[in-house]
Specification:
Radius of gyration: 11 Å
Strand content: under 5%
Largest sheet: none
Order of helices and strands: HH
Shape: globular
Number of strands: 0
Helix content: 55-70%
Number of domains: 1
Distance between the termini: 33 Å
């Protein structure tokens, strides 16, 4: 079951909505498939979404 933005206790409101959705998609995958805990998943998701966003801009 995927988590929603509101489920995370982190301030992601400043992110672009598309970027925020992608970060949550990545974080959910990390928790469900890779066994990450929530805090670590969101940190890693933010790192990955930054790369994803920059790759899209190229």
């Amino acid at each position: 079951m995927g988590r929603r933005f509101e489920d995370f206790g982190y301030n992601l409101r400043e992110l672009n909505p598309l970027v925020r959705r992608k970060a949550l998609e990545i974080a959910n995958h990390l928790m469900e498939e890779e066994g990450y805990i929530e805090g670590e998943a969101i940190k890693e998701a933010i790192k990955q979404v930054q790369k994803w966003f920059l790759d899209r801009q190229a």
